[in-house]
């Protein structure tokens, strides 16, 4: 999968079609990361790198998942790792607009109580 970088977005392309993206925006003392598309295992390392850099820089992270169609189990593990690292720095990881189907996967794995998650309405 090819990565295409712009000022605030990483696009993951396959055969000239965008499969997923990670977009970052400053939101007060936090960074808002909007994820879109199918967040597969191939994207896990890029997401881990981006989130680690933000934590090192002292940023809290809000993840908007409203446009995510799939989230690999390895990405769920990254969220847990990052939440622990943020907690050590007295920062938080918030997950907003999580689609119900993805929330059900977190719940099936017992992860829904370990993270601050807002489920998408509707």
CATH architecture: 2-Layer Sandwich
Please state the CA-atom Rg, rounded to the nearest Å: 14 Å
Give me the number of helical elements: 3
The helix content, as a percent range, equals 25-40%
Number of domains: 1
Unreliable spans are: none
Number of strands: 7
The biggest beta sheet, please? Answer: 7 strands, mixed
Which fold does the CATH topology refer to? Answer: Transcription Regulator spoIIAA
Mean pLDDT: 93
Quaternary organisation: single chain
Structural class: alpha/beta
Report the principal-axis shape. globular
Strand order of the largest sheet: 1-2-3-4-5-6-7
The fraction of residues in strands falls at 35-45%
Q: What is the H-and-E element order?
A: EEEEHEHEHE
Distance between termini?
32 Å
CATH fourth-tier homologous superfamily: STAS domain
Top-tier CATH class? Alpha Beta
Give an account of the 3D structure.
The protein is an alpha/beta fold. The protein has one domain: STAS domain (Transcription Regulator spoIIAA), CATH 3.30.750.24. It is built from 3 helices and 7 strands; from the N terminus they run E-E-E-E-H-E-H-E-H-E. The protein has a 7-stranded mixed sheet, with helices on one face. A hairpin with a 3-residue loop joins strand 1 and strand 2. Helix 1 packs parallel to helix 2. The protein is globular.
């Amino acid at each position: 999968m090819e990565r295409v970088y712009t000022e605030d977005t990483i696009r993951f392309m396959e055969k000239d079609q965008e499969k997923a993206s990670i977009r970052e925006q400053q939101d007060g003392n936090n960074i808002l990361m909007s994820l879109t598309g199918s967040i597969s295992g191939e994207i896990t390392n890029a997401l881990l790198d981006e989130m680690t850099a933000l934590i090192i820089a002292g940023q809290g992270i809000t993840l908007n998942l409203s446009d995510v169609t799939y989230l690999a189990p390895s990405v769920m593990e990254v969220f847990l790792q990052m939440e622990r690292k943020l907690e050590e720095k007295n920062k938080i990881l918030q997950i907003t607009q999580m689609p119900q189907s993805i929330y059900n996967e977190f719940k099936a794995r017992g992860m829904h109580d370990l993270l601050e998650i807002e489920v998408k309405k509707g």
